[in-house]
């Protein structure tokens, strides 16, 4: 039987960088030119099947980028297994905001969280203000995954979520309580094949 895991993923970034459009493209393979700003956060799910037939289900929290909702963000990234921090390649200020989100995650989120830095709107490269070199250098310095995407064309969208899915089980660490029991904790994801077993008996897959 193939292994099935469930992970909590949160999207963070300034308003209008395309977080909701990324999720819509990933979940429904759709794009809407006129999307209203997210209020609070939106919740969606999507599944990725890896090459070894391991299934990773993402529980996705798409957070609002407006400043007035920033104080709510910890509610969504708390206990998250992974985060996608999105910036707009045509707006250099959005990368500065992304850096702030990364710092906040590094300070307050789970230490083993997987963070991916995502430069969206690659279809607008003629208006680029953030170079690939600048963003990748920052990602390398901070130990982040990095990619550019276009929610409009779909370029790179599935790839970045698949890359996260591949990395997650390998980076999940047992909690203190899990280590004490000799088992891995829920940080390694919920194994959907073992829902009926006692909590804390989940094992990470070796993707």
From TrEMBL:
Molecular function in Gene Ontology: GTP binding; GTPase activity
Protein name: GTP-binding protein RAB5
NCBIfam families tied to this protein: small_GTP (TIGR00231)
Gene Ontology cellular component list: endosome; plasma membrane
Annotated spans, Disordered: 175-207
Keywords of the record: Cell membrane, GTP-binding, Lipoprotein, Membrane, Nucleotide-binding, Prenylation, Protein transport, Transport
GO biological process, one term: vesicle-mediated transport
Amino acid composition bias (Polar residues), ranges on this chain: 193-207
Protein location: Cell membrane
Superkingdom of the organism of origin: Eukaryota
Pfam families xref list: Ras
Membrane-protein topology: Lipid-anchor
Residue ranges with Low complexity bias: 175-189
